[in-house]
Amino acid sequence: MDNRPFDLLLTGGIVVTGAGMRRADVGVHGETIAAVEADLPRQNAQDVIDVTGKYVFPGIIDVHVHPVYLDSVQDCARVAAYGGTTTLLYYAYARTGDNLVQKVEEMLEDGLANGLLDFGLHAGMFEAPRQLEDIPQVFEMGIRTFKFFMPYIKQGWTTDDYHLIKAMDMLADLGGMAMVHAENGGAIDYMEDKYLTGPDAADKKHPLAKYFNASRPAAMEEEAIFRAIRMAEVMDCPLYIPHNTTRRAIRHIREAQAAGMPVYAETCPQYLTLTQDVIEERGALAKIGPPIRTAEDREGLWDALAEGVIQVVATDHAPKDKDVDGDFIEQPFGSPQIETLLPLVYDGGVNTGKISTVRLVQVLCENPARIFGLYPQKGTIAVGSDADLVVFDPNRTFTITDENQHSNAGYSLYDGRTVLGWPEMTFQRGHRVLWQGEIVAQPGGVQFLPTLRAKGIRG
Ligand SMILES: [Zn+2]
After folding, report:
1. pTM as predicted
2. I need a labelling partner for 263 at 20 to 30 A (CA). Which of 200, 301, 354, 459 fits?
3. Are 42 and 394 contacting, i.e. CB atoms less than 8 angstroms apart?
4. What separation in Å is there between the alpha carbon of 316 and the centre of ligand 1?
5. Which residues surround ligand 1, an ion (CB under 5 A)?
6. Total number of domains in the chain
């Protein structure tokens, strides 16, 4: 340890990493963690903050963010920061007719100019037959994860099996990773059409609020996950499955991981803390793809998270303008989630004993950093790592309401829910971000984080 006085010193907290927890002070020089030990010297330290009774977590990393709807890149970063998040991975989507390289360049520039948080990018494509050829060039720009839709045939967003396995073939050669929205598109489209032309179709407000989940059954998510795993197996391509919703698909992921395949699974707070009842209660505001499912699925996801089959929780933040009184089927998919990630997973998982505090840090910090190649710069509290830190008060209660959330969505699916545990302050590379309930960081001065090959994931 060098003997310069610390620029920032957090004293008396419980430091939690993916490896364990202990009482220790955290000393920072510039933008980097310089010491993690009990009773560090306070002499001449510039900024000493007593965090006795609080947890000190690594900065939360949300790897599933869509900054192209009601919340811009700047909004997403600001709203995420209120919830204790310090690093974001945005999806740069190329829609039909778009140029993938150009879309990635635009989001990269937007993130650097307007974001408040360090970030990386995933690329995603709606027109794979034409856009696949851009993968090598995008790869050179520091993006190695590419997302494909197996459903949404009617909307024209789907990647068929021919082009999905071709993408996996290319990505395996490059050292990249495929990401799939896994639902069986043809089957879902048929069932949706059947309900829409059936006897209940006259009820334009609720036809799919009632039949939404029935037309997108867990079996069709399971089938697509199984199919994607088998294609990845043939091409020897790493596979990341975002937004898992269902207990019954877990067995295939577990089996692939046990066979040594690089298959990674994510779930989201909405699937861990809500059930499909919320669709009856809030209508299209809770229309999300894949759908929020049963209490049994929810428990299955917690079990998989504790067991290690699911390694990441991220938000799929996609706030959109919805008309709750309009035709359900015309309303877009998605909901605001980015602000409540840490408090919901802490309250729903740690306070109930479903996961440990250390597991919380693994699934929100360490594993996202490892899977996307950001570790140990991000995802841990260790000498030499970026000083991205969250001071979390486990004794503060907070009631989430539609009004006190910062997304432009104007609502939260957790309206009225009281959670125990709330982030009190955050630092990114030693600079204050969340401070006394407000965001004090300014846009710019952030780093783009190229993603690299995964290493050393904690199951
Ligand atoms: Zn998404």
Report:
1. 0.97
2. 354
3. no
4. 4
5. 316
6. 2
